[in-house]
Amino acid sequence: METIIKNHKRAATHLEEAANFHLEAVKYHEAGNHDKAHQSTIKAQGHTTHACDAQKEILKQHTDVK
């Protein structure tokens, strides 16, 4: 159960970070700084990927729980 909790926290943290970088990208786009917006978007995607990995582990762990 400890591993499931750890992975839930990991997924949530990465999703929050992804959201923050997406919001940062919006601000950069609105300011006309598209290069920085692209960088923020790449960072957001990285966090989203890590969150998805954690979610896959969570699903595996939940299906193995009896």
Structure keywords:
single chain, 66 residues, mainly alpha, 2 helices, rod-shaped
Q: Topology of this structure?
A:
Layout: H1 2-30, H2 34-64
Helix pairs in contact: 1-2
Descriptive overview:
This protein is an all-alpha fold and 66 residues long. It has one domain (2-64). It contains 2 helices and no strands. Helix 1 (2-30) packs antiparallel against helix 2. The radius of gyration is 15 Å and the shape is rod-shaped. It starts with a helix and ends with a helix. The model has no long low-confidence stretch (mean pLDDT 95).
Low-pLDDT stretches: none
Q: What separation lies between the terminal Cα atoms?
A: 11 Å
Number of domains: 1
Mean pLDDT: 95
**Outline type:** rod-shaped
Summary of the model, kept short:
The protein contains two helices and no strands. The protein is mostly helical and 66 residues long.
